[in-house]
Amino acid sequence: MRLPQLKEKLKLVIENDDNKIGKEYEDNNESVPYKDDKSSLALEYDKYKKYYNLRTKAGVKLNSFVFINSSVSKEFDLTNSWNFVAQEKIELNNKNNFENSTTLSLKKHINNQLRFINTNQYYWNKKASDNNIYNSLRLTHILSSKNTLNYVTSISSNDNQTNFKTKNYDAYISYKHYIRKWLYYDIVPSLYGEREDNFKMRYAFKFRLGIVIGK
User: Fold this and answer.
1) Residue 41, pLDDT above cutoff 90
2) Distance (Å, rounded) from C-alpha 97 to C-alpha 209?
3) Residue 198: CB partners within 8 Å, gap ≥ 6?
4) What is the C-alpha radius of gyration for the chain, rounded to an integer number of angstroms?
5) Which residues touch 112 (CB under 8 Å, ≥6 apart)?
6) Yes or no: is domain 64-211 CATH 3.20.20.70?
7) For 175-198, what is each residue's pLDDT tens digit?
8) Which contiguous run of DSSP H or E holds residue 124?
């Protein structure tokens, strides 16, 4: 939920998808296993420049830890339809002390209905001295102004438990439908496997109801 801007470039935001991947494609179901997805209340400052975008945020999460983070990103136009995005983000909080993530994404605008993105992220936090890698492939199919399908596969690994061997597999399809401009629901069937369970494939089904206040 994003509230109206308080002033130019400054926003008050309430959200539970700050650590998700692929927010630009209207799908907040792709969660990263090693990150905290608790809801947060924060002040956000955005600055968009010709050569980079800067975002700084400070607030509190519902599990009672305060945080401040800052990220800088840059998008490169490779061709008319291919783009490369690099992002660096740092965060200080009273849970993991210091966190850092580097994200590299390759995006393809196939046509007005289809978009593809390959995301690769490296994440580290000081408290656990834990290095993590996350890779995902996403195809977004825009059916109409009210209906969107996302097809996502992902793999994650770390050096703490698996010595950078694969730790999790995940695949899902999400269907998003806007009932109104401010009200939507997601239907998300998924298939996943974990190393600690010998990658036995398990199934899950999720239904989400959400609201949008401001953009």
Assistant:
1) no
2) 33
3) none
4) 18
5) 142
6) no
7) 999 999 889 999 999 999 988 888
8) strand 114-125
